[in-house]
Amino acid sequence: MRHQLFLSLVAGLMLLTSGSVRTARADLDPADRQAIRQEIETYIRQNPEILRDALVALAAREEAARQRAGIAQVRNDAGDPVLGNPDGAITVYEFSDYNCGYCKRMFAPVIALLANNSDVRMVIKEFPILSPSSLSAAKAGIAAQKQGKFEIFHKSLMTYRGQVTDDATTAAAKAADVDIDQMRRDMDSKDTTAIITRTRAAAAALGINGTPGFVIGDRIIPGAVDPAQLQAVIDALRAKGG
Description:
single chain; alpha+beta; Glutaredoxin; 2 domains; elongated
């Protein structure tokens, strides 16, 4: 009831201020306009929670809009490395850094998850945030994907113990039979830089500032989580038709 009254008062205020309702304003003399203003001011002073609730609702709408925009950015995944079924009906996005210990702990469970869900396409969002060598490894991963050699490259670095160095990245590429010269050209390309820039923008929009981070459907799941939680979200999305 109070909200309805508040909306009525706001509608009255609009009559006083909107240039598109000049006819309505002309029907009000100065005394009427002043009375409406005073009524609105008094109501707000007596019911300040109305403004609080309105600001909370506005913040929630803005956050939802920001997340929708971020998820749309995530789904722009041309050129991103892919694991699992490349034509899978369900896509899982993982923000990952090759120097992230939690990402490495999640690697085996993620591979098991893909083995148990043949309809899942996993896109690795290379998100190098931990060191300069993370950036080199991320670029190499994108280059390895371009040659169709990403899976072995990715496994080599995700099972590598310790800080990933440029030498370790090159060794992983060689183990995957990647053309090293072509890889280095692709690492320095504008396309590779654009992919990483795109991922960083998506992470910022979603509020993802660490690794790993997962996006499944419209769900954002930060951090290393129980694989059963990922499975539950996948099952729910599958039940909805992907």
